[in-house]
Amino acid sequence: VMTTIKLSYPQDAETVFKFLADPETARRRSVDFGEEDIKVTTQGATVINVRKVASEVPSFAKKFLNPKNVVTDTKAWNAASKTAALTVDIAGAPLKMSGNIKIVPAGSGCDYIIDFTMKCSIPLVGGQIEKHATGVSEEGMRREYEWNKAQLAKL
Hints:
- This protein is of the alpha+beta class.
- Helix content is 30%, strand content 44%.
- It contains three helices and seven strands.
- The protein has a seven-stranded antiparallel β-sheet.
- The chain starts with a strand and ends with a helix.
């Protein structure tokens, strides 16, 4: 199931793109969120953030998911189109998220649009786990957005 989240920034698309595509932004956000063993690397315009993240796991998913996981977040940014291909991989978990990010002008600011799907490879409870993980991801994206907005306001 494709999920779309649209968030708006008062800053223009170029400013938001430069801020979000900066590996230092990813590192600082992970530090501020209390994540552990943070390692941010780049390959060209791709930012890869590998870190240990704590999350609440519902009882029905405890067999398949740990409360602390190594998460690899990869964003392959394209400066010309202000887009990114996004993948999130949770080590040892049967879950994978993939999607696309678009930063588009909107008035004097811009919209940040994320389309993503969550896939779980477990039969029967997979749908429930996907639904839970999608909700957790949406919550995380909104939390990141609030952090981003606060940081951008300081620029």
